[in-house]
Amino acid sequence: MLSLRLGRRFRTYTTIPASTTSTSKTKTTLSAKDIKKPSTLEEPALIKLKAERDPEKLFHLFKANAHNRLVIENLVAFEDTISRLAGARRFDYIEQLLEHQKALPQGRREGFIMRIISLYGKAGMVNHAINTFKGMHLYGCPRTVKSLNAALKVLAHSGDLDAFESFLSHVHCQFDVNLDIISMNIIIDALCRMGIPDKAYIIMGEMEKSGITPDVITYTTLISSFYKLNRAEIGNGLWNLMVMKGCLPNLATFNARIQFLVNKGRSWQANSLMGMMRYLGIPPDEVTFNLVIKGFCRSGYIDMAKRVYSALHDEGYKPNARIYQTMMHYLCKEGEYDMAYTMCKRSMEKNWFPSVISICQLLQGLQAIGKIEKAREDVGETIHQDISISQGKKEAEGDLAKRVGVTPDTPATAVNPPSGS
Q1: 3-state helix, strand, coil in the chain (%, to 5)
Q2: Radius of gyration of the chain (CA)
């Protein structure tokens, strides 16, 4: 039995098919004709659209990709195309493209029609946007409050009060769509932007009767509008009403009130309000810090502005371009040119360039204290770059060069920060 098992084992390992020996001897040879050249890949449509600058070619390229989902569903590419056609004032092309899109299968989706309404609005074609909303049923697209809000936003940004009110008066009876809190906030914001916050306040009272409770956005919009019109008694009253009804203010509400206090020169109250934000667990942002810093600077408390600036760093925030600009401007006014130079340099290191006027003011101050040479390269080059971008170049350059003693042909020197910076 043992010999039989061994034999079977050896037989399984030693048997080799004859076909393998024969195939190993044959060699395959390929000729030059058998090797195919790699096919050239066509450039993607999105890249073509981005690179195209001719409005007519852009129109035809987009129309040729009307069924390409990678193009149609790409919101950035869609908006960029419409924006460039609007910039070229080719509204006929915009109408053809968007009307063609509505007739395609995607025109049955409410979200897609909302995009069409929004694009018409951004192109300034308000009537086309409203007609798109009114004709949604023609394409088998359901109409809800979402598309209504898209149409309201377009009318709100147009600033046409008559068209806005006319649309609102007919919307419920014609389309049987009920407004929601988002709709009411759009209406209130639009009326405040048009300079009639009293009417917006009345609408807020009516919305409570219809069962829609105002939220923090509603109150913040009205408070900010009345503060801007220096009607603090109504703004403060709305603040108290909001708190009394259990709606707590948010960051935007606090910033609106701090802005009002700063404009009135009440910088210490603005600083106290920022402290209240921390107590309530609402962390201030860069806008809050900038407002408080600006308030102290305007009131002449530059040391308090420095302390707030230091607190910004201590709490883990990073100054933005406006904070650097504010500090630099008022430090120059107070004659603290060393620290203003430091602010200017830090801002430019982050590619945030202060205004030409502020840089001119800084250079004049450094020249007065005999430290112009140390800042000439950094700040002087920034002046020439900023002027060449924003102004007519040679004349403005020559004017500023005479005022601050920096000429375009001045050789670059090593830059060392002023002492004490």
Answers
A1: 70, 0, 30
A2: 34
Are 171 and 177 contacting, i.e. CB atoms less than 8 angstroms apart? yes
**What are the start-end ranges of the H helices in 335-406?**
337-349, 356-368, 372-390, 394-404
DSSP state of 35: S
262 Cα distance to chain centroid: 26
Q: How far is CA 18 from CA 8, 15, 22, 407, in A?
A: 20, 9, 7, 91
Share of the chain above pLDDT 70, in %: 78
Q: Please state whether the predicted TM-score (pTM) of the whole model is above 0.85.
A: no
Beta carbons within 10 angstroms of residue 349's beta carbon: 9
* Chain length of the chain: 421
Q: Is the dihedral of CA 326, 327, 332, 333 positive or negative?
A: positive
Terminal-residue alpha carbon distance, the chain: 99
Supply 22's token pair: 């024969």
* 228: exposed, middle or buried (Cβ count in 10 Å: 0-12, 13-18, 19+): middle
Q: Quick one: angle between helices 126-134 and 91-102, nearest 10?
A: 10
**Contact residues for 348 (Cβ-Cβ < 8 A; gap 6+):** 354, 378, 382
In this prediction, residue 249 carries a pLDDT of 94
Question: How far apart are the C-alpha atoms of 74 and 79, rounded to whole Å?
Answer: 9
Calpha distance 257→273 (Å, rounded): 9
- CA nearest neighbour of 91 among 46, 121, 112: 121
- pLDDT category of residue 390 using cuts at 50, 70 and 90: very low
Contact partners, residue 273, CB within 8 Å, separation at least 6: 254, 257, 258, 261
CA distance 146 to 111: 8
